[in-house]
Amino acid sequence: MANSKYEYVRQFETVDKIIPNTWLVVRIDGRGFHRFSQQHAFDKPNDRRAIDLMNRCAVEVMKDIKDITMAYGQSDEYSFVLPKSSNLYARRASKISSTIVSMFAANYVMRWSEYFGNVTLQYPPCFDSRVVCYPSDQNLRDYLSWRQADCHINNLYNTTFWAIVHSGKTETQAEEDLRGTFSKDKHEILFTQHDINYNNIEQIYRKGSFIIRQKTKVTSISPNTGEPVERIKLIPTPLHIDIIGDAFWTEHPDLLK
User: Fold this and answer.
1) Where do runs of H (alpha helix) occur along the chain?
2) CA 153, 156, 159, 162 torsion: positive or negative?
3) What does the alpha-carbon distance between residue 58 and residue 42 come to, in Å, rounded to a whole number?
4) Engineering a disulfide at 49: which of 24, 54, 85, 115 sits with its beta carbon 3.0 to 4.6 angstroms away?
5) Which residues are annotated as a binding site for GTP?
6) Which EC number(s) does UniProt give (predicted)?
7) Phi and psi at residue 14, in whole multiples of 5°?
8) Residue 42: CB atoms within 10 Å
9) What is the pLDDT of residues 107-125, one digit of tens each?
């Protein structure tokens, strides 16, 4: 496009380029999702449909943006990790952040009916996002550990809270019962009063979802022969495992390169 007398306004744009050789984490969070979950009658303490939808959206984002090497999600949040070597959008924070969060939100709306069936989406979900850079591998691991620890703390509380409510007490009474309790107290309440062994609850609720690209056998039809052909592709795959300890990272050393 030819220059015009109006092009000077580009001088007002700010440069938000992130420093090189650092890990980039784009973290998105649902805005007002407490109300959103109430309006759409999410199951408590966890709605598997909502979790599976969040994971699907994250997978679709990773399929589109190849620079993302891993992602971690729980509840209404997801963190997408780009390696130190990434030069996506010249490392412009606003462009990286806005692209990922808008793609995630668009997928959430588009794929809603696949997971919620005839439940009508009553209003558009909204997500905010931010970009944070971490200079070292340990910083990145500590960030991911923080989010998984948060998942455990929140899920233990919510599981205990809703077990009390489902037993017949009000939400106010449940809050009062849990005030001042520690982790061991919640385990005891669940086991002795509600016959729930927290350690037997599915890992997807206790650990959250960690997505990496895994070698997967994919069958497609050859355009030349019309015959099925098997290929190995790297497909973003949600895992529900511990990422705080060393075992996972020892098994997947390439993730931190």
Assistant:
1) 33-39, 48-64, 93-110, 112-116, 137-166, 171-178, 183-188, 194, 203-206, 247-251
2) negative
3) 20
4) 115
5) 29-34, 75-76
6) 2.7.7.79
7) -95, 150
8) 19
9) 999 999 999 999 999 999 9
Mean pLDDT of 235-241: 97
Residues 6+ apart with CB under 8 A from 3: none
What mean pLDDT is predicted for residues 215-243? 87
What pLDDT, in 10s, does the model give residues 168-185?
999 999 999 999 999 999
**Beta-bridge partners for 82:** 24
| Binding positions for Mg(2+) | 29-30, 76
Contact call for residues 200 and 207 (beta carbons, < 8 A): no
In the beta sheet, which residues pair with residue 210? Answer: 72, 239
pLDDT score, position 227: 78
Which pLDDT value is given to residue 225? 79
Annotated binding site: 29-34, 75-76
- Tell me, what's the pLDDT at 145? 98
Average pLDDT, the chain: 95
- Closest residue by Cα to residue 212 from 180, 166, 186, 243: 243
Q: Say whether pLDDT at 141 is over 60.
A: yes
d(CA 240, CA 211): 9
> Percentage of the chain surpassing pLDDT 70?
99
H helices, E strands: number in the chain: 10, 6
Task: Extract long-range pairs of 139-146: CB within 8 Å, 24+ residues apart.
Answer: 139/23, 140/23, 140/25, 140/81, 140/256, 141/243, 141/249, 141/256, 143/25, 143/79, 144/72, 144/79, 144/81, 144/210, 144/243, 145/243, 145/244
**Integer CA distances (angstroms), 181 to 46, 148, 156, 174, in order:** 21, 21, 11, 12
- DSSP annotation of 48: H
The two tokens of residue 149 are 């620890």
Residue 218 phi/psi, 5-degree rounding, is: -120, 135
